[in-house]
Amino acid sequence: MSIQDWERLGDETLMQYKVFRVRRSRRRSPRTGAEIGFLLVDTPDWVNVLPITADGRIVMVRQFRHGTDRVSLEIPGGLVDADETDPAAAAARELREETGYAAERLQLLGVMSPNPAMMTNRCFSYLATGCRPVGDLVQDPGEDIEVVTVPLADLDGLLRQGAIDHAIVLATIAFWRAQAEGPGA
């Protein structure tokens, strides 16, 4: 038996917020014929950036996260704005706004579905190399960010300690390592 797409019967918006919409999507199971409702979150695509300086340091941010009710150690990232058609441009903008750094080179590492069970967006992960400070942070009103640089040699220890636990950050590190350790590396 092969898995088939479910028939989409209709959608109803339940809540509309500035950066996401919650909707009930009615679907029909191809296996049972049952009609089932699912809650989905529609949000713009996201980007995140693994920024590395010429002297081998990762530029990271600490910020309070309301979902976990604590400060989190992460890499910069955010929404692809409605007027941005190129996720790389959004990645460069987020790097600049959240850290005050710019990169000599941006490289797409991979694209992921943050939570395909209920979210409809994608997250584009970039490697930024040759990063250097170019100005002050440009924080959104809902952000309080501290920029920290971490030696690449300390990354594994931070991962083992659980100091970095944001799933999308971990996935970006996995993309980066897969490319660095892949065939021909």
Give the total of beta strands.
11
- Per CATH, the architecture of the largest domain is Alpha-Beta Complex
Mean pLDDT: 95
Amino-to-carboxy terminus distance = 38 Å
Query: How many distinct helices?
Result: 3
Query: Helix-strand pattern, N to C?
Result: EEEEEEEHEEEEHH
CATH topology grouping of the largest domain: Nucleoside Triphosphate Pyrophosphohydrolase
Protein architecture, described:
The chain folds into 2 domains: 7-42, no CATH class; 46-180, Alpha-Beta Complex (Nucleoside Triphosphate Pyrophosphohydrolase), CATH 3.90.79. The protein contains 3 helices and 11 strands. It has helices at 87-99, 155-161, 167-180; strands at 7-16, 21-28, 35-42, 46-53, 57-65, 70-74, 77-79, 101-102, 105-112, 123-133, 145-151. Strands 4, 7, 8, 9 and 10 form a 5-stranded mixed β-sheet that branches. A 3-stranded antiparallel β-sheet has the order 1-2-3, with no helix packed on it. It is elongated, with a radius of gyration of 19 Å.
Salient structural properties:
Nucleoside Triphosphate Pyrophosphohydrolase, single chain, 185 residues, 18% helix, alpha+beta, elongated, 3-stranded antiparallel sheet
Q: What is the compact description of this entry?
A:
With 185 residues, the protein is of the alpha+beta class. Helices cover 18% and strands 43% of the residues.
How would the blueprint of this fold be written?
Layout: E1 7-16, E2 21-28, E3 35-42, E4 46-53, E5 57-65, E6 70-74, E7 77-79, H1 87-99, E8 101-102, E9 105-112, E10 123-133, E11 145-151, H2 155-161, H3 167-180
